[in-house]
């Protein structure tokens, strides 16, 4: 779907992002330093980098050749890099915190998203390159150190742990964050604004940190306070939460899109100012992603059904038990529409690029999991789920991995059952529901 995303020949070991943020929609000076290891001899290599104004590129301290074509930055070191050697790339540039792109699916606008007093980022699916030069593919993970300088009346936040907050020249503040665990570039979060950091605890003393625009602290407090219960409910289904901390970043934007940025889910303010049922659906959806899509990362974009399908599955399951609509009724409606969705958007595991984040990847993919549960039974299904999030914790996995693991846990070959659901042009019969009917395709 995105054939130029990601680059071979090296492995990123850590990113260091140094941003001298100034004001909303105002360009600022930025430096990205990448510590990497070559996996083959390299006379040149590529980074994914879009927009922004490139200044200099060095490799191991020496000026390197640099050329750009589209989103590809080709770097030619002064001396070739031998296989198996560590090296450091430093890129300086002027970042544009108003730079966005648009998709005609659930993502809408992505990249740098301005807010009234700062910025948030929507890197999904491949907008991290609008923020920093990267190996921008969902399967490629690395830890990140964020060092963000802001005016003293602004707060910077990012994935992971706040390491330090120190004074900087010019009456400014330098914020340093460590992601703690590796993460995919599509899960990066970096925001600046007039924020309050609201600390609390989840189950087992898990540190919770919400990041809230000052004017929205009280209006969003009731729904944000539901997170410990959401964590407890999901841990009962899936096992321990997979990271060291969690929290919600309240997005002061008009975008209606929430995002599972790792350890700090971005939830639009409208979601937290509406009904409790709608708020909880979105909160549980993004929290479920911390297991599915964040801890267990996507092997390729064709595997998005695993991530979004699970998030929608647990979102609807939770909602049904907490005042929302019937889960079974939602799945029956999805079943009726499934052949049409297959025609319009591709089968669950066969998306096309323009239709990547359309209905099939959400309710259409949750339906596959519903069918699997109906096929193997509740107890075996839960064992499959727990085996998936524990067995692939902190790594990447794809559709075939899911089929293989489900078969192993169930003690039977489920390939013949799951493949038609995931790849077929026609929706298979729903186990246990012979009366369910698929609508004709128009």
From TrEMBL:
Aminopeptidase N-like N-terminal domain mapped to chain residues: 14-186
Domain of life, per lineage: Bacteria
Give a yes or no for keyword Zinc in this entry.
yes
Q: What positions does the domain Peptidase M1 membrane alanine aminopeptidase occupy?
A: 230-421
Q: By its UniProt entry, which InterPro entries does this protein fall under? A: Aminopeptidase_N-like_N (IPR045357), Aminopeptidase_N-like_N_sf (IPR042097), Peptidase_M1 (IPR001930), Peptidase_M1_aminopeptidases (IPR050344), Peptidase_M1_dom (IPR014782), Peptidase_M4/M1_CTD_sf (IPR027268)
Molecular functions per Gene Ontology: alanyl aminopeptidase activity; metalloaminopeptidase activity; peptide binding; zinc ion binding
Q: Which GO terms describe its cellular component?
A: cytoplasm; extracellular space; membrane
The reaction(s) this protein catalyses = Release of an N-terminal amino acid, Xaa-|-Yaa- from a peptide, amide or arylamide. Xaa is preferably Ala, but may be most amino acids including Pro (slow action). When a terminal hydrophobic residue is followed by a prolyl residue, the two may be released as an intact Xaa-Pro dipeptide
Q: Name one GO biological process term.
A: proteolysis
Could you confirm whether the keyword Zinc appears in this record? Answer: yes
Query: One Pfam family for this entry, by name?
Result: Peptidase_M1_N
Identify which cofactors the protein needs according to its UniProt entry.
Zn(2+)
Which Gene3D superfamilies has this protein been placed in? Neutral Protease Domain 2, tricorn interacting facor f3 domain
Q: What is its EC number?
A: 3.4.11.2
Where would you find the membrane-spanning parts of this chain?
none
Keyword list (alphabetical) reads: Aminopeptidase, Hydrolase, Metal-binding, Metalloprotease, Protease, Zinc
- Classification via SUPFAM superfamilies: Leukotriene A4 hydrolase N-terminal domain, Metalloproteases ('zincins'), catalytic domain
What family is reported? Belongs to the peptidase M1 family.
Q: What is this protein called?
A: Aminopeptidase N
Task: Tell me the organism.
Answer: Streptomyces alboniger
């Amino acid at each position: 779907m995105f054939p130029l995303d990601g680059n071979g020949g090296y492995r990123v070991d850590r990113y260091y992002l140094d941003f001298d943020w100034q004001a909303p929609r105002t360009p600022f000076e930025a430096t990205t330093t990448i510590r990497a290891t070559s996996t083959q001899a390299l006379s040149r290599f590529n980074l994914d980098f879009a927009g922004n104004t490139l200044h200099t590129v060095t490799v191991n301290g020496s000026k390197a050749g640099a050329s750009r074509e589209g989103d590809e930055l080709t770097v030619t070191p002064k001396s070739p890099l031998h296989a198996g050697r560590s090296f450091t790339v430093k890129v300086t540039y002027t970042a544009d915190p108003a730079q966005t792109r648009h998709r005609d699916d659930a993502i809408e606008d992505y990249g740098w998203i301005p807010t009234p007093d700062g910025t948030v980022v929507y890197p999904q699916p491949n907008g991290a390159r609008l923020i920093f030069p990267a190996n921008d593919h969902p399967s490629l993970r690395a830890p990140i150190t964020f060092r963000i300088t802001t005016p003293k009346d602004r707060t910077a936040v990012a994935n992971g742990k706040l390491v330090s907050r120190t004074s900087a020249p010019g009456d400014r503040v330098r914020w340093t964050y460590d992601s703690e665990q590796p993460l995919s570039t599509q899960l990066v979060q970096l925001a600046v604004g007039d924020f309050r950091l609201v600390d609390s605890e989840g189950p087992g003393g898990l540190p919770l940190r919400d990041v809230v625009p000052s004017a929205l602290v009280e209006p969003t407090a009731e729904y944000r306070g539901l997170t410990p219960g959401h964590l407890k409910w999901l841990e009962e289904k899936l096992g321990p939460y997979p990271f060291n901390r969690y929290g919600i970043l309240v997005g002061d934007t008009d975008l209606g899109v929430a995002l599972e940025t790792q350890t700090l889910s971005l939830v639009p303010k409208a979601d937290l100012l509406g009904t409790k049922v709608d708020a909880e659906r979105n909160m549980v959806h993004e929290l479920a992603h911390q297991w599915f899509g964040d801890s267990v990362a996507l092997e390729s974009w064709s595997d998005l059904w695993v991530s979004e399908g699970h998030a929608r599955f647990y979102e609807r399951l939770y909602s049904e038990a907490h005042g929302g609509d019937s889960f079974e009724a939602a799945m029956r409606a999805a079943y009726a529409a499934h052949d049409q969705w297959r025609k319009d958007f591709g089968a669950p595991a066969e998306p096309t690029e323009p239709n990547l984040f359309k209905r099939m990847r959400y309710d259409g993919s949750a339906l596959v999991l519903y069918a699997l549960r109906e096929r193997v039974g509740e107890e075996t299904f839960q064992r499959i789920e727990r085996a998936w999030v524990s067995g692939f914790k902190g790594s990447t996995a794809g559709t075939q991995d899911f089929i293989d693991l489900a078969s192993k846990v169930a003690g039977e070959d489920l390939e013949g059952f799951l493949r038609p659901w995931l790849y077929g042009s026609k929706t298979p019969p729903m186990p246990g529901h012979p009366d369910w009917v698929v609508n004709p395709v128009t």
